[in-house]
Write a structure and sequence with these properties.
This protein is of the alpha/beta class. The chain has a single domain (21-175, 197-203), classed as HAD superfamily/HAD-like (Rossmann fold). The chain has 6 helices and 7 strands, in the order ββαβααβαβαββα. The protein has helices at residues 50-59, 71-74, 80-98, 128-137, 151-159, 190-206; strands at 2-3, 22-25, 63-69, 104-108, 145-148, 163-167, 185-187. Strands 1-7-6-5-2-3-4 form a 7-stranded mixed beta sheet, sandwiched between helices. Helix 1 runs parallel beside helix 6. The protein binds zinc ion. Residues 108, 110, 120, 122-123 line the site of zinc ion. Zinc ion binds next to loops. Keywords: Carbohydrate metabolism, Cytoplasm, Hydrolase, Metal-binding. It holds the Pfam family Hydrolase_like. InterPro entries: HAD-like_sf, HAD-SF_hydro_IIIA, HAD_sf, Heptose_bisP_phosphatase, Histidinol-phos.
Length: 208
């Protein structure tokens, strides 16, 4: 585990907000193993330690929100109804196997432009899904984090005013850098991430 906390990072500031802290979770390559454009529930495989880590963080008081780009819908590779079936299976398995209740799932069905940039306010690295969930659930983005396997996930977290963690599971291949794309911390596994976030939550709670 390598920690790279930026100077002035929001999670070391005193916080007096009423909103809940949240972990925003990328789906493919982060929560579950990435099977490109899969909507077959039979092919769902959790990343090692993901379910247990989410159970720990739920107990620590975090809201849990899945935030996922699903351009396969815009590309005509599957329908929203097929995605809904997959989503129901995923949430049911998290509940049954780990007693984890996901507070919300935010999904972007739109495609990128020819350069790979979002054409909508919600496709990561845009922050629209995070800000939408924050409004709906009363979340405190300044005490929240996005975790994903790509720097687009990190950037989406930062653009929303939250932190950004990288799970090094091999999903990032381009490594396009930028000031919003530097992870606050990077982890090789979910257990290390959960321990780090528990520490941050405890430190926030101890703030005057
Ligand atoms: Zn979108």
């Amino acid at each position: 585990m390598a920690l790279t906390t930026r100077p002035g990072a929001r999670h070391v500031q005193a916080v007096h907000s009423e909103g809940r802290p949240c972990l925003f979770i990328d789906k493919d390559g982060t929560l579950i193993q990435d099977v490109p454009y899969n909507v077959d529930p039979a092919l769902l495989r959790f990343m090692p330690g993901a379910g247990a880590a989410l159970a720990r963080l739920q107990r620590a008081g975090l809201a849990l929100v899945i935030v996922t780009n699903q351009s396969g819908i815009a590309r005509g590779l599957f329908t929203r109804e097929q995605f809904d079936v997959l989503q129901r299976a995923l949430l049911q398995r998290l509940q049954q196997e780990f007693s984890v209740t996901i507070d919300a799932v935010e999904m972007c069905p739109h495609g990128p432009d020819a350069d790979g940039n979002p054409t909508c306010p919600c496709r990561k690295p845009a922050p629209g899904m995070l800000t939408r969930a924050a409004r709906a659930l009363g979340l405190d983005l300044s005490r929240s984090w996005m975790v994903g396997d790509t720097l687009d996930d990190v950037e989406a977290g930062h653009r929303a005013g939250a932190g950004g963690f990288l799970l090094r599971s091999g999903g990032e291949t381009v490594w396009r850098r930028g000031p919003l794309r530097e992870p606050d911390a990077a982890f090789d596994d979910w257990g290390a991430l959960a321990a780090h976030v528990e520490h941050l939550v405890a430190r926030q709670a101890a703030m005057p």
